[in-house]
User: Fold this.
Amino acid sequence: MNNIVLTSCGIRNENFKDRFHRIISKEELKSKKVLYITTASDGEEDDDKTWMDEEYKTILDLGINESNITEYKIGNEINICDFDIIYMMGGNTFYLLDVIRKTGFDKIIVDFINKGKIYIGSSAGSEILGNSIDVALGYDDNNVNMVDFTGLKIVDALIVPHSNRKEEFISELKNKTKENVITLYDGDGIII
Assistant:
């Protein structure tokens, strides 16, 4: 498949960048259109969004032309067929999944991936692809009062971003679940 990229905070690690460029070269990336979805950040209560600027830079560092990046909020009109890559930013996991469900954007994501286009998730943008987001109860505010934590189930696992900051949490999680657990460390990631 090789078209799903899960990260905590973008593709920063040079070794991981090299693996990504084996899927799609820097030369190819220059012409690719990226839908940069920042919806999850709207669910964050912290006004400091400097991390978003840092992460945006990681997209440019991949070799993508800035003129080919369109920032997008889920729910607005968009022709998804115009894009080659979805880059789903992090932020509040519950807020993001809630908006995705209410707008039907989950079906758009599944269709996009099934067409072989590239989906890059960052933090919450990675976590929503798993079987459940209930692991986020350990670190995100459930500010939308979500009770159904079922993820998009595109990846058969629980996905835990920023794992390098949650070692005790992950150890407890692995002891109480039978699910596969994918741990994502800052700066690194996996390609599915």
About this structure: Residues 15 and 103 are 36 Å apart (CA to CA). Helices lie at 14-23, 26-29, 50-61, 93-103, 105-114, 124-127, 167-176. The chain has one domain: 4-191.
